[in-house]
Amino acid sequence: MSDDTFPTGTLMAGKRGLIMGVANKNSIAWAIAQQLAAQGAELAFTFQGEKLERRVKPLAASVGSEFLLDCDVTNDDQMDATFAALEAKWGKIDFLVHAIAFAGKDQLAGSFIEQTTREGFKSALDISAYSFVDAGRRAARIMNDDGAMVTLTYLGSERVIPNYNVMGVAKAALEASTRYMAADLGPRGIRVNAISAGPIKTLAAAGIGSGRHMFRFNKAASAMQDHTESKGVAGAALYLLSSLGASCTGETHHVDGGFHAIGMPQEAPLRASLEE
Predict the structure, then answer these.
(1) Entry pTM
(2) CA quadruple 219, 221, 225, 230: dihedral sign
(3) 180 given a catalytic annotation
(4) Catalytic residue from among 130, 154, 180, 239
């Protein structure tokens, strides 16, 4: 298990970027923000509504940022205002972190085919996948030609995960969007990648039915036989957003302790997990 500190350095010195999707101190986006700040990045944050502002504001302050922007990704006027504010303050940006996803709780339990409604499907795809396309398009207009973008996905895009349901479809669309965006922006040297993180106890994960079973099974079945750590995801994001990630684009990078590589888990740890 790792501690709560992040490696310091100058990999992101002089770089500025936007973090979208911090909900609280347990958010993967917050771990990424801390790691980028520890490497010298200057950060802006979005939030949606007063409740999230109260959570995000002190976190942002702790990494030296007072640049907070109220932004509902389904509202074109707010998206316009967000990126106009970035351009007005900084002129150019160097990176974008997209960590936004949503599906109604009623869509994330039971049968996918029975539970998924038309409105639930449209909402999940809009907020979880299209928002990256929309943010990426706007960010690219003010991004330096050696910039980078990262979004967060999950293995439910590739395999059936109980109760993940429509979110798995949305994440599959997100990963496909990442590849198309990478192709469009590659000639400018802008790299676009996705990180497929293992289960982490975040606010988003709390909305998925049978979450406790998911965490136990992933720990038992992963190559490392341990939980995925936010710090590991943050390190991967640093690599992909910094000069270390040169020539890497259109990739879905797994940070899940090797869970994605296992065809059949070892019997002993699996049996032990079922007895917990």
Answers:
(1) 0.93
(2) negative
(3) no
(4) 154
